[in-house]
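Hi R.,

Here are the chain sequences for the assembly we discussed:
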Amino acid sequence: MAYFLLEIGSEEIPDWMIEPALEDLRAKFQAAFGAFGGSALVTEATPRRLVLLAKDLNEKAPDTESVVPGPYLSAGIKAAEGFARKCGTEVNRLGTMPDAKGERYVFHQLTKGQSLAAALSEKLPEIIVGIHFPKSMYWTGKGGVRFIRPIRWILTLLDDQVIPLEVAGVKSGNTTRGHRILGSKHPIPVTLENYDEQVLPENFVIVHAEERKRRIEAALGPDVRKDPDLLRTLVYLTEFPTPIRGSFDPSYLELPEEILTTVMRHHQRYFSVLKEDGSLAPEFVAVTNTNGDPDGLIRQGNERVLRARFNDARFFWQVDQQKKLSARLPDLAKITFQAKLGSYKDKTERVVKLASILAAQTGADANVVEVAALLSKCDLTTDMVKEFTELQGIVGGLYAKAQGEGEAVATAIYDHYKPASMDDSIPRTLEGQIVSIADKLDTLRECFKIGLVPTGSKDPFALRRAAQGIVKIVFEARLELELPALIEDVPQLAAFIRERMQFYLRDVLGFAYDEVNAALAAPLTTAPDLADRVDAIHFIRPTGNFEPLAASFKRIKNILTQAGVETVSEPDPKLLAPGPERTLYDAFLRVREATKRNSSNRENLASIASLRPDVDLFFDKILVNDPDPAIRQNRLGLLSSLLAEFSTIADFSEIVTS
Amino acid sequence: MDSFQDTIFKLKRYWADRGCIIQEPYDLEVGAGTMTPETFLRVLGPKPYKVAYVQPSRRPADGRYGENPNRLYKHQQLQVILKPTPEDVIEQYLGSLEAIGVDLRKHDIKFEEDNWESPTLGAWGIGWQVMLDGLEITQFTYFQQCGGMDLDLVPAEITYGLERIVAFLQNVESVYDIEWAPGFKYAEVRLADEQQFSVYNFEMADVPMLWQEFELHEREAQRLLDLFRTSKDRERFPVLATYDHVLNCSHLFNLLDARGAISVTERVGVIARVRKLAVGVAAAWVQQQNPGEEAAA
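And here is the predicted structure of the full complex:
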């Protein structure tokens, strides 16, 4: 049993690419060396190294035997001798085996399992350069190897042996490197025993990400705002993380918290510190890649940078207030929305129109919606958003409030990029929801019109997110919006939004896919109605009548298709045969009446499900294809009426029956 | 404490000791050290080259009338090109920080992903911004393409933001408080420059005149590129002079942009016009340097 350690030494790898790269390395290693067994495969990384440790590998892959088919015995001894020669053996060592055409010679070929050392040496270079990175580079010259950043060393230890290999001119060895500043300046020889326990820590490298994370967390303190994403970033930006705490002048707290936090988090990668009441304290925590800051120089440096950043923000705030949002409307003509789709001024005009249509359908305050939609993009012309683009919308909201546009308008603008993801919340107010939908719907409509449609993983305008945002809002806020009417002129978009609804109902609300399909196959209505219909299907589904009825509806659909029936015709009661046919018709009338009276989809589905015995009996006793064409036509009419009348809640034929 | 100019001297000395030619700034308006022929053209082709120079870099839209302590219409870059990149390039770079008085063991250095792209030059690269105690002090780029061509040898471009670094070293809050030379503040040397050019760039530059100028330079560059194509004597053809006209176009574009004279619909088109010229010059340069080998245009 052998241990194998691989360390790929690179220049600093972007933090967000490290975990996926390790996953890829692990999968590729597993695929290539699975034959050697092993009890565990561990991967670790710092910005400068990707590490893989495989434990308890067999030193040799198992031998394999394959059967090489030769000539039939009937072909004679000459053929057999030729075959034996080709296999490097003699005729008396060949076996025989019968098959459909007779008895034939076979050669049992034994392939010796490759040694682990040979396999590693042969396959690792390809695995290393094959690790997938979202953006790679070459550095040894045109056409050279590509990797995320230049590879500077490779450590390959199979127990105490170096596995010889070469990648991009770098020869493997038994040495690692320490922390750029604090570690040894020279390559350091290691063994499997002392690599991560002794040599790396002594050289200020903590190779285990979990350990770096714990080290940061231990120093944060309970008043530091939790931020798992930032924490992960810092874990992969450092080899020896040491948090330090700094402070800033409390007078900056007069700036909105959103702006202060963005400066600290996005631009400086600092954690925020909170007071007991949950508001921002004039402090921050920076995570350094050092062994500490005994003289306070690093703290002073970071405080100085933060001060300059906050001064900028304060300066932007003051300058921006000199021109109100409403006065910035003409400036939107100078900002491109999309090359073929014109400027943000054009977009704003469309969004205002869409928003007012949506407002009228929902009882939102039309005036608030109009003003908010009109001003929603004006913050794109402010210095603040030019500097802190991730604050678009939020800055608009803050400015609108400061400029007396009213709380409702300010909130609607503030929220209108929400939800930023499926985990994000939707806008807080109805007016914000309307402006958000109008903005996203416009982007979708216009992009689809000029053929900018997402394909596969390519979605440069984040159209999926936009559509998903709309869907999330209409479902969560239960908005009675007639979406179909707003997208019917862009057919591809209608299908796209339907897909997003399907995703939402299935993956977020957890309905079965056939229940969702059944509800979506019925005419598309408003989101609350759609959600209610799926819920009703889900509720009624376990009852005894439902699935058999669904099966019968499928049968009806098939019969109608085969008979070429495309329109619905009411049956003539006079032509109905007494017995099961008449009974079904009466039941149809009864249920139709009931569904008109019932107030809920659940009740309606229960009524429809009660048709089951009559439908069953009908198919049991009645032949639809009656020799008399008039009777046949009448029976098809009965079935088509049934199907049409009761498919508005759900298309039952979509239900998968057991 | 070293003055602004002392720090520049030390950096130049440091890179000169590592085999770099110390060039002087290019004598045309450019937005960055990357645009000068010493970088844009020298990185092309198979010839190794090492050079360092200070390049005053003009970005009209970044002007703040001298009122913002950290933002300048014209800042000084110290640009280093190492072609091909030596294996210990990062160690060399860190050494340069020590040479100007940064005790690395007492400070926090991080390399954070930051890739670089210039649509007007048809150029891009992969690299980092180097952070010193949370302050971005250097842009470090491995060039991959220039003038739309894959580079034969991958150069490292190290661009020091001199004002920022020196403000850090001198521990001053405003670039204008930097001591440029003993007894002379940065403000005394450059403030008027910032104020007057902000006024000109934002308020007074004559837009029709700038457009005319742009078109004249564009026409001349294009005329020369067309002549190059049919030239029998490419060896002595003025490709470098052609490139000067492209640089003029680029600067005039930046001025027009700062003046708010370029509409949304025009913008992409104007960038494409400059890019076409830059790519043309790059191809011509490669052909001139390597006669017999046709560059992929």
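Chain B is about 45% helix and 20% strand. The radius of gyration of chain B is 20 Å.

Let me know if anything looks off.

Best,
T.
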